[in-house]
Amino acid sequence: DVPKVLDSRGDSDGPRRGSLCDRHCAAINPLQGDLGDLGCHLHRPRVPAGTGTPPCCQQHSEEVCESCVLRTTLTAENAVEANKLSNNYKFGFKKWKSHVTARPWEDRSEIVKELYSDLNVIRGSGGSTLTCGNVLYLLLFGWWLSLLYVLVAAVMFLTVMGAPYGRLCWDLAGYFLWPFGKVIQKVEVPKSHQVCEGGVGESSALLGGPAPRRWSPRCWLGTGYWHHASTAVWLCLGYPVLLLAHGLVCVTAWLLIVLIPAAKLSARAASRVLLLPPRRVLIRRLRMTEVPLEGEVILCCYRAANPYYYKYAVDGINVFAVNLLPLVLVTLVLGYVDSPNHLTGSAVKFSLALLSIMPLSYYIGMAIASISAQSNFAVGAVVNATFGSITELTFYITALIKGSREGNRCYAEVVKSALTGTLVGCVLFVPGLCMVIGGIRHQEQRFNSRSAGVSSALLFLSVGGVFAPTLFSKVYGKLVCGECHNVTQNPLGHYLCHSCHFDMMDNNGTLYYSHVQPLVYTVSILLPAAYLIGLFFTLKTHTHIYDIHISDCHMPGHHHSAVVHWSRWRALLILLLSTLCMSACADLATEHISPILTNSTISQYFIGVTVLAMVPELPEIVNGIQFALQNNLSLSIEIGNCIAVQVCMLQIPILVLFTIFYPTNFTLVFSDLHVYASMFSVVLMNYIFMDGKCDYFQGTVLVMVYFILLAVYFFAPSPSGC
Fold it and tell me: If DSSP codes are grouped into helix, strand and coil, which group holds residue 331?
């Protein structure tokens, strides 16, 4: 027997029980030590080429060796980030890629540092300024902005008093036509001007009092009433026009994201350059061998575009979510103010409401991750269980309420299609896409097959429980057809029937109310119970299955305190506001989906499976792709599996519970297409994940199967009654 070695690591949940591989490795090779002491990185024990198995496992079975290879140690910059990483590997917790605290500046890459730097740094060699991004700036903004400066300069010269600002605008017209490789500096006022302006403050060396002020035409033109009149003319006639133009450039360039440097350039010009006295502004072209002049550098730009600005964040919020936030306001105002559809139609409002769900899903996810990382396990579990599925449930419940009020069964069928689409998409499309994108960078990716096996077992259980009432109705229900034709002209021959379904309401609904409905309630109780057992299994008794150790460490010489982007109260406020806006957008989406369902030639199945199912999951898909690019496919797979498990074990039972208190047309009886698609997807997913490794080919298989199922839904006829 190998002696038990206590694990000295610590994480947010307290000491963990060492796995079998930990005890073997510690007993055989105690000199390896804790991988967490090597620095703040992701550590995976690597096997030297040609040695076969790791040294610590040479004397043990293949099972122990495989477990040892999968052993992973993660380290974080601070305790809050360590808690967030630990939550990522907990079953049932929302996986979040972005940081919830401000990262230390010295730990960031040079690419990221350039994104946040101000445009006031002169480089020794900026390279060629003739780039595609700079030419794009010239075509979009440079030519008309330069022309506007020329026109303003002409107006300033015509006023005579604004002539100094006219000269400034003339110089800035050439600058903004092509600002790259040029610098704007704030220079000191010449002494002759300071003498004229500050004559009152001078003193006589003989008398010790103020010296008499000598009048000079040159001084009078630069100071006094003339100076104030020139500034007044500029602030009334020139500056407002240019401020509006620069504001338009800022908004447009910011929305294009890659042109954010142009937005910074325009904003800095409007807030700094145009408010300086003309004689204090110096514009010059930089030369590679030239020493910069003395004075403050206000603007120095070399590139108008940077493709890495998709990483840019404002107070921890990704720039895409920031840019989509005004869309939520436009959607709410347009949806509730223009109720008669005078300005736009239902299709536009439905599209806007659906697009508004994406940034709101991001804010909800960020708020949940922030609260969980700054709280204990109990609070994090409650927040994740309460708000983890709030996006989907909000839309489903509002759709069922509208369908019940109108007596339209189509809404219930659309909700079933969305549930199935979320299940199939998270089982096939999300992990498949992550495998393809991650496989392009990494030839082969490995993941923890034991942790994936827990989610797979719960998926099998949940799919079987969800579709049990459907299978029961197929066996005991009465087949009713809308129209039948005798194809053999013989009364005893074969009949061709259309629009057939199993009727459970025969004999006053005896089959449904006496057998199917009790089965639905039983399943709705057992599925959440199984989910809780899975949580207890993975989070309490068998935490070593994941074999992930999180430690709060720092690089030598670095000591950082955690500066969170959102405090707990701020995150809670954003979470509640986002949920409220989500409810309003879901109400607008269901309000304006009816014309699309009735007038569209596309099957309602396809609309529910694609648009309504996958659009709210886009932030989760982006998180999964980012994990896969970092060779962390385990979290990419867990993202899809956790969503699929929550659909079956939480969302569907909640909808059944809702129908008890608010009767709707929703019944837990799905069409044959939903049953076959879901079961086939789960079986294929388990087959792919069996060996604990994958590549881009296996991911391509999953994605192709998903698109084949979408083609089936596209050509399928609409549900009966729609």
Answer: helix
